[in-house]
Design goal:
By secondary structure, this protein is an all-alpha fold. It contains 4 helices and no strands. Helices cover 94% and strands 0% of the residues. This is Suppressor of IKBKE 1.
Length: 202
């Protein structure tokens, strides 16, 4: 009992010391706020004491600053375009990062649920149903991406087949045209020889 009473006394002493520290800190903050308030009031009085001439000059300066040169406008336009391009690139990279993070979190949730079910039997039906729904959505997205890849591959295969068919057709035409060309050239050579012999006899 004496031990607990001494402990209570020690706790009260520590609480009193902390309250004193908080009081001193609050007093310091009050003094700082009063000093700042005095400075603000002094600045307001100085601002009100200025003549109207300075206000007119400041208005003229503001009107002059409204009219910017063409060079500055073009520079700002190019900077805005660069910022927009960087924003688009960052947006695409962010979407890719979110998709990858979603897949990682899906696998992480699956492993956590497996560990929970292995340690102790719990009513995990609602959690499992939510996880299955989410997994189905992710799987559907993956299937869409795979379908798009298959469509692109089929288009490439069709182009390759068309190219091969055209090459085969050209090869067939070349093979057919070669004997005809040789026959035509042979006929012209024999005709030239006959003409030379006839001229010699004459």
């Amino acid at each position: 009992m004496a031990c607990t009473f001494e402990k209570v006394l020690a706790d009260t002493r520590t609480l009193l010391e902390r309250l004193k520290e908080h009081d001193t800190a609050a007093e310091g903050l009050i003094e700082q706020s009063e000093a700042l308030n005095q400075r603000v009031q002094g600045m307001r009085e100085v601002g009100n004491a200025l003549p109207d001439k300075h206000t007119d000059d400041s208005s003229e300066i503001q009107e002059l600053t409204k009219y910017k040169p063409h060079v500055l406008l073009t520079q700002e336009n190019t900077q805005i375009k660069e910022l927009q391009r960087e924003n688009k690139e960052l947006w695409v990279s962010l979407e890719e990062h979110q998709y990858a993070l979603e897949l990682i979190m899906c696998r992480y949730r699956k492993h956590v649920l497996q560990l929970m079910m292995a340690k102790k039997e719990l009513d995990t039906k609602p959690v499992l149903s939510l996880h299955e729904d989410h997994a189905k959505e992710v799987q559907s997205q993956v299937e869409r991406i795979c379908e798009m890849g298959q469509v692109m591959r089929r288009a490439v295969q069709v182009d390759d087949k068309h190219y091969c068919c055209v090459r085969e057709r050209l090869a067939q035409l070349e093979s057919r045209s070669k004997p005809q060309l040789s026959w035509n050239t042979g006929g012209t050579v024999t005709n030239n020889r006959d003409l030379q012999c006839a001229e010699a006899t004459l």
